[in-house]
Structures are given as C-alpha cells and as structure tokens.
Amino acid sequence: MKKILLAVFASLMMVGAVSSVQAASDAEHPKDLSWGFEGFTGTYDRGALQRGFQIYKEVCSACHGVKYIAFRNLMEIGFSEEEAKAIAAEYIVAGDLDEYGDPTERAGKLFDYIPSPFPNDIAARAGNNGALPPDLSLMIKARPNGADYVYSLLTGYEDGHEVAAGMSYNSYFAGSEIAMGQPLFDDQVLYADGTEASLEQMSQDVVVFLAWAAEPTLEARHKAGFKVISFLLVLTILLYFSNKKVWAGIKAKKKED
Ligand code: HEC
User: Fold this and answer.
1) 146 close to 103: Cβ distance less than 8 angstroms
2) What does DSSP assign to residue 137?
3) pLDDT-derived band of residue 214, with 50, 70 and 90 as boundaries?
C-alpha cells in the first residue's frame, strides 16, 4: 500500500514538473482553431491538402525538407499518378554510380523521397545565419497543439519590436525572437483552384498538409475504428436479445414455482 501511495505521489510530482516547464516558456498560447482532421471522425480536406503542398513547394521548401514523404505519397492527397510523376520529374535526385564510379543525377521518380533543400545540417545552418530550419515532416506532432502552434507562428509576426540582427519578432515562438523571417504574405501564391491566397488561408492550408505528413494514416485509422465500434454495437444488440431469449423460459418457469 505504502509503495502504491509513493508511486502515485511520484507521478503527481512528475506531472507538476512537466507543467511548470511548459509554464516557464514565455511564448503566447497558440490561437485555438478547429481543424477538419480533429476528433473521432476527422478527415483531411483534399483541397486544403493540395493547396498546402503548393505552399510547401513554392515557399517552405527553400529552407525546410519533408524527408519522410515520397512523391508516390502525393497520390494519397488527391494527385493523379501522372501529376505526381510530373511533380517528381521537376526535382533532381542522386542517381546510380556511372561506369567510372562517379555519382550521377537524374530526374525524380515516384518512389523517391522529396529531396531536402540542404545536403546536411551544417549547410542548412550556413544558409540561415546559423539557425537550423528543422525538417517539417513530423513538426505538427513534435510541438504541443502542433497545428494551432504552426498556424499561430506563421500568422504571428509583428513589426516594431527591438530584435537582434537577422531575427524577427513572433510572440508565439519561445523567447519571441525567431531566426525565420516571415515566410508568408497575402497573395504570395496563385492557387490553381481560385481560392484567395490570404495569409490566413495559406497558413491554414500548409498546416493541413503538414498534419497529413505527420500522420498520413489518420483517416484509415478512423475508418477502422468506426468499423470496430459498429461491429461491437451490433454484437451488443444481438447478445442482448439472445440473452433474453435463452433466459425467457427459465424465468417463466421460476415464476410458476
Ligand atoms: C528562408 C528560409 C525559411 C523559409 C522559406 C521558411 N522557414 Fe521555417 N524556419 C527557418 C529557420 C532558419 C528556422 C529556425 C528558427 C529558429 O530556430 O529560430 C525555421 C523554423 C521553423 C519552424 C519551427 C519553429 C519551432 O517551434 O522550432 C516551423 C514550424 C517552420 N519554420 C515552418 C515553416 C513553414 C510552414 C514555412 C513555409 C510557409 C517556412 N517555415 C518557411 C527558415 C525558413
């Protein structure tokens, strides 16, 4: 008993320590948005996913990779095979060694992973004033309230604050000084589906794309969960009635006695 109490006490202490660490960060709490992929029946909006990929490709990919996403995965977000092939072919990737053992390059193919903009972290830092632009594949999962946080970060830049050279002011980033200059501005891209490219719209779209990148199996999981729950529901109803039927005769007999 004493041991159990001690364990409970220790875990309470740990919870307290974790929340005080979070409270110690001076960053503003992210804006609270409602996302289509949240909740038990959540799915990703196909339009937002494709627009979000466009934002990633035309803006964020200058500095950030999404190394866990292959071109073939783009078919999961509604691109046709032809479209995914055409996107892959726009990239140059490392090919096999040639007959002299020298490295070669070739156009990307469906099975290739989307190449990152820098060959390694040192090169990435050298290109960004010493700061490392992290890979974005798992970013939404890596931060608390990831979707809200990244949206707030992208829409949270403010002018008129004193910051160190090369830094920008953003109250949603811990410390409020971030080495990433504001990446998105109104009308930065031209959306193929005619959606207005406001800062908020683009930020929302790229977050939906990154949420999918971090959890591409979410929809399949939700579907499987739904099937399991429906099955259990039907089973419960069947058991209820068969239970009633099995006991009906016995109960009637008991009453007679
Ligand atoms: C010109 C280069 C550049 C571009 C373009 C850029 N970023 Fe960044 N990004 C950075 C750098 C550098 C950092 C690291 C900032 C730091 O640690 O202060 C960063 C950090 C981040 C972070 C991590 C913040 C954290 O909590 O650590 C996210 C999320 C992010 N960027 C998202 C994006 C998205 C989404 C886009 C496209 C809309 C984008 N970035 C475009 C350079 C860039």
Assistant:
1) no
2) T
3) very high
The helix-helix angle for 146-155 and 199-214 (nearest 10°) equals: 150
Beta bridge partners of 103: 97
Ligand 1 neighbours by CB, cut-off 6 Å: 55, 59-60, 62-64, 128, 131, 133-134, 136, 139, 143, 150, 153-154, 178-180, 183-184, 206
- Coil, strand or helix at 172: coil
pLDDT at position 2, please?
63
pLDDT score of 40? 82
- Among residues 30, 31, 60, the alpha carbon closest in space to that of 213 is found at 60
Pocket of ligand 1, candidates 55, 61, 63, 184: which has the most ligand atoms within 8 Å of its Cβ, to mutate? 63
Q: Which of 64, 129, 135 has the most ligand 1 atoms within 8 A of CB, as the residue to mutate? A: 64
The domains found in the chain, sorted by start residue, are 26-46+134-238 (1.10.760.10)
- Indicate the SS3 state at residue 168: strand
Distance of CA 89 to the CA centre of its chain: 25
Q: Look at residues 38, 33, 32 and name the one whose alpha carbon lies nearest to residue 219.
A: 38
In this structure, the strands spanning 157-158 and 177-178 are unpaired
What tokens appear for 234 in the block?
């039907």
**Terminal C-alpha separation, the chain:** 49
pLDDT band, very low/low/confident/very high, at 6 (cuts 50, 70, 90): low
